[in-house]
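Dear Dr. V.,

Thank you for agreeing to look over these. As mentioned in my earlier message, I'm a first-year student in the group and I'm still getting used to reading structure tokens, so any feedback on how I've presented them would be very welcome. I ran two proteins. I've put each sequence directly above its structure. The first is here:
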Amino acid sequence: MVDLILVLILLLSLAAVAWPFLFYPLILRALPAKTEQPLPGTAPTASLLFCAYNEAAAMPEKLANLAMLKARHPGLEIWAFDDGSSDDTAALIEGPGDLVTLIRGPGRSGKAHGMKQLAARACGDVLIFTDANVLLDADAVDNLLARYADPEIGGVLGSLHYVGEDESATASVGSLYWRMEERLKDEESRTGNVLGADGSIFSIRRSLYPDFPDSVLDDLTVSMAVIFAGRRLVKAKDVIARERLVAARGDEYRRKVRIAARAWHTHSHLRPQLRRMKALDRFKYASRKIIRWFGGLFILTGGVAAAALAWRISPLLFGAALLAAVLLAGIAFRARGGLLAALADILIAYAATLQGVMKAMRGRTVTIWNPAKSR
């Protein structure tokens, strides 16, 4: 009986880890598509918003990209919030004259606070959110605004393409993970709503912008407001943003802990509204968010069950398996490329996410951020 329970725990743990990447996508593909119904009319006006902290290295390329977008869209309003940078970020943003309207924060107050300041001042019908180190393709704004011809659409996400995936095992794993994430969003969009946006490139109708505390993940909070308002949150494959991957494990670990902690605070803040969502959207949210946040716990539970099974079969088998696992882990965490290095980075990512969630459950969060040095 004990062996059967251990086998069931192991199988359920494996299924939970695989659910967001295997079973959930298969279910989405079996669902019918929800078509868009655009109406004729003039394109909405737009405001592009981003926050920056110590991004002087990224600013020249970012400002050139913004100048290109402004040339294509003279009416595009561009706002930036400087979160108390200690380098030349603010001066560089102000350098091109009237290209970007800069708001200087009083110090380190965080991205959520900064974005609220910008959204309160923006005048565009559509608010476009992006990051200081993200570059948009030339036709990104055109393609994004075109989707708002359907009055049911309240928010549009873009597609993030990473640059530098060959620079390290961490970057390679990050790129693979993100490609899987993008395909999941494509399927969610096809079947109704995408369940949340990241900060690289997304937009909403300004009238839907919500109020929220500074402690939450503003990308998730703002994008979910579209669904709560009864509108559609969709993804546009032809709205392309580009960002350089984080190459160092330490940078990526800290980033994932920070994001996971704020994501759990956001989940707690949004829980009453999440419960009122349609059944399909609740299923999507649980599959792509909650199950993934606890992936590290499922891996740990499965590992303990597997170890207990090995011990019950033979203490010698248990010892051999434990020794092999320790040796492989040592090799994997020292490797800088190949399959074992990739496996190590996957486990690190799960551990960082679980640590962030556990931190948030204890009432701790992270409101400020620092750019990754290995980008």
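The second protein is here, in the same arrangement:
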Amino acid sequence: MTELTPAGARAVDHYLVGTLIAHDDALDAAVADQRAAGLPDIEVAPTGGKLLHLLARAIVARRVLEIGTLGGYSTIWLARGVPGDGRVVTIEAESANAAVARASLDRAGVGEKVEIREGRGEDVLPSLEGEAPFDLVFIDADKESNTLYLDWAARLGRPGTLVVLDNVVRGGRVADPLDETAQVAGVRAGLEMLRDDPRFDATALQTLDAKGWDGIALALVV
């Protein structure tokens, strides 16, 4: 077996993207606009975006909730995964980010499927109570609030709702007992909630892609 090296991992990611992810002008433009606007380089990797898209299609999701829009890259992938009358509700705390995302979504031809709700998750999520339950929830926002977002994912979902929690490995820091930073503590608290809260059944996977060493947790609302 070939020994894992950073260069080798990058080469494999490049191969997988080139083999399985088709070139897409709208997605490329979304990333370019995000960079031009000075947004952080923290959108999901292409393979991660395709995974979200396939998960939405696999469960035939009609209503998707995304917490953390950024520039709309993952939102495009999700919106393309729901049917023509499907809906993606995405929450973004920063108005400037939401504006970049809206332009990218419209250019990609999925703007009519997406509702961007501006504000902090803790303020926006309660406004979704009473609406139809979500079939898929993607959480990719501040890690310190992971337990809050997971609680709302269960409350706004239904039995069988799929929850995807991003960035749960943090370059291996999640397993470092000496790392007590707020982000890592938030990740651990979220994983422990998925373990202990009877509303969830969950697992997690490490990933090594264009964004480096990280991982996702996958959970069903039960």
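From my reading of the second output: Strands lie at 63-67, 87-92, 114-118, 136-139, 162-166, 200-209, 212-221. The mean pLDDT is 96. Does that match how you would interpret it?

Kind regards,
E.
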